[in-house]
Amino acid sequence: MTPSDPLDTSAASAAFPDDFVWGVATSAFQIEGASAEDGKGASIWDDFCRQPGVIADGSDGRTACEHYHRWPSDLDLIANLGVDAYRFSVSWPRVRPGGGGAWNEKGLDFYDRLVDGLLQRGVTPYLTLNHWDLPSELQAQGGWAHRDTVHRFVEYACGMAERLGDRVASITTHNEPWVVAMLGHDSGIFAPGVRDRATAMQVSHHLLLSHGLALQALRQSGCRSQLGIVLNLSPVQPATSSPEDQARARLEDGLLLRWYMDPLFKGAYPADVLAFLGADAPRMEAGDLAAMAAPLDFLGVNYYTRAVVSADGSWDKRRSGFELTDMDWEVYPQGLTELLVRLHHDYPVPPMFVTENGGAFKDGYTDGRVHDADRTRYIAQHIAAVGEALRQGVPMAGYMVWSLLDNFEWASGYEKRFGIVHVDYATQQRTLKDSARWYREFLQRCQAARDVNALAGAGV
Ligand code: IFM
Hints:
Elements: H1 9-13, E1 21-25, H2 28-31, H3 44-49, H4 67-81, E2 85-89, H5 92-95, H6 105-120, E3 124-130, H7 136-140, H8 148-164, E4 170-175, H9 177-185, H10 197-220, E5 226-232, E6 236-238, H11 243-266, H12 271-277, H13 288-292, E7 298-302, E8 307-309, H14 334-346, E9 352-356, E10 365-366, E11 369-370, H15 373-391, E12 396-402, E13 421-424, E14 429-432, H16 434-457
Parallel strand pairs: 1-2, 1-12, 2-3, 3-4, 4-5, 5-7, 6-8, 7-9, 9-12
Antiparallel strand pairs: 10-11, 13-14
Helix pairs in contact: 4-6, 8-10, 9-10, 14-15, 15-16
Residues 27, 30, 176, 302, 356, 402, 409, 418 line the site of 5-hydroxymethyl-3,4-dihydroxypiperidine (IFM).
């Protein structure tokens, strides 16, 4: 190990300020299971999983990690890792089964217990409202393509803030609106499985609008949690320096990054993307753009890999020379620094969190251990990339590993494992992988540095 080795926990921890927030992340549909218990309504993902051929292993979220029942021991696991924060999502159809109408007290109680359980264990709750599991009843009325859903979302946000806002440090409106819009409504490989570009863009508009209106309503209601949104972002690079590849990369960057960042921070959609969309551009009402640009307390960035594009589609990442994860995503940590520096440079960003980062790898489970050196290296290198962004002056506030547990990886089912904790789906046994052990040791180093600084600050 060299002094600059990212696996050296002592050197790696030195790059971060004492108040930097370290966490792990999950989402409701991917881990909770109990998909029809205690009054929970159906979500679009429950419905989507029933369609033949859409989930690689034919699985669904009915059982998942049984987190709905195993939450106390899962919270013990989280606390034992030594993280500061746990990022989780609320299942909208669990707390308000029809999307509008009556609230489900048993569902609300579950999140009450979860939040209290976190606080009792010294872990700060970071809540996400929409991690994709829209109530089916709202989809029946048009889902995110229908403007009424915007108002149902604002009601949902206010209801959750009323119930939990006194105890959660942070509320995220949406996780990865690009995914909901494009994978859910353009390519249709995710729920609800729609394939129509104009619908996808209308959905993206309603997601951003509901975000802005929810922030407005939450602030008016006196909510004291930090409010923000989480985007999935990547640097988009041209495969070659040809004008065609560069133009294509600029457009893809527009669709992925600027389509969301510009309205959030500049109050307008990017002109080049609007021109490209033509008749597929979303319909807007007066005041929408101003609402979408409501000030943010934080921005969450989910980063996994870079995107490389060529105009003729000939780019082959298998020949790029970079390691590929089990999702076939390039391991490209320098892209995280590049992305964060660019966001800081191009936009007036508030403090930023890496709200998701991690890798799916083929894990071998032997004698009670999972030696996931590839995932450990992935996480360590990306933490170092965040440290480098900090060094370059980017306002970074935290980093959260995706994911705490192996879980339901959407269209890939249970075949892809992102967890730093292994889940044996037959027995539901949890086992810390080597990556979790590394992260725990790293966090102990961070804590030791904080303790030393606190003593020094107290003049001891
Ligand atoms: O599992 C997902 C998560 O739900 C959203 N961000 C990307 C992760 C890995 O694909």
